[in-house]
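2024-03-11 09:14:02 INFO worker-7 job=invfold-0412 stage=load source=structure_tokens
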């Protein structure tokens, strides 16, 4: 899926300049992952107890760049 894993142990053991780089890389990977994904969902809304709407959705399309 093109995912990434980041170790908190590496962050905790890093020097201050390495921590800064770790945060920058982690933030960039997370934002790229969010921005490059497009989801298509089918949703159904049902009335519950006569007063409340209850939405139920499932992902039907997932596009990643």
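2024-03-11 09:14:09 INFO worker-7 stage=emit residues=65
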């Amino acid at each position: 899926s093109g995912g990434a894993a980041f170790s908190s142990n590496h962050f905790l053991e890093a020097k201050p300049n390495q921590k800064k780089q770790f945060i920058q890389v982690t933030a960039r990977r997370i934002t790229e992952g969010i921005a490059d994904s497009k989801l298509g969902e089918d949703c159904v809304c049902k009335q519950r107890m006569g007063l409340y709407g209850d939405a139920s959705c499932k992902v039907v399309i997932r596009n990643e760049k």
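2024-03-11 09:14:09 INFO worker-7 stage=report msg="The mean pLDDT is 83."
2024-03-11 09:14:10 INFO worker-7 job finished
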